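Shapes recur. Our protein:

. . .
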Amino acid sequence: MLEINYNTKLLGVVGENIPYTLSPAIHNYVFQKLEINAVYLAFDIKKEKFHDTFPGLLNISHGLNITIPYKEDALRYVRPEKEAEMIRAVNTIFERRGYNTDYVALNTLIREKIDVNEIKVCTVFGAGGASRAVIYSLLNAGCEVFVINRSKERAEKLREEVSRNGFSIKIVETCPKSDVVVNTTPDPNFVPDECVEGKLVIDFVYKPVKTSLIVKAEKRGINTINGIEILVEQALEADKIWFGKRLDRNEVMGYLYARQLVR
């Protein structure tokens, strides 16, 4: 049991409307297991108060995670590392430096599941903030990336952003034959049944863990990465930035299942 004292370090996640967040459960478990004298809280901040509140949190905290809707807003307060600057989103802060551990986590998970030398065509559903990290991970793996999104205007804006970084993506209305299929939207059913194919399917949704998309892929013998794997891996990468050490991903996932925090 953590004993809070003068030396206890403060960390937390900053977002808006985040009662669902599992980040405190994950990080406080890690701190306990690694005997780190720290506590991790959720800071639920309204948009109109963000720019007044956030600088103070930066000053008093050892480290922070940033989630929806502030991953872009936080950039102005930090010195972004290369990947965060490229993606234009920060989700981890330490010593005023901004990182994107979503990108790092996806690079790790994709390479664990498949040989990236064998993937040529990748289709990403969604053009919101969550899509950026996986698009750059797939581009980094040498994949030709196609994006399908309900809002064509938002998709075109994303294409222009990617182009400014020297990469190219294609905006399409139907999925090509793909090696990797990714859902970054809140709705797993946004991915049509005929698009569930290839070597790997990724779904960012983690409630439930076994989404309809993940179930379809597994029934077809396709490798999968589910939302809880992404969430836990990016969290553990943040722990490594803050404290230079981390737990095994499977141990943390086992803890979440045992506590029935995920199903």
Observations:
- The mean pLDDT is 95.
- The two ends are 26 Å apart (CA to CA).
- The domain at 114-225 is CATH 3.40.50.720 (Rossmann fold).
- The first helix runs from residue 23 to 33.
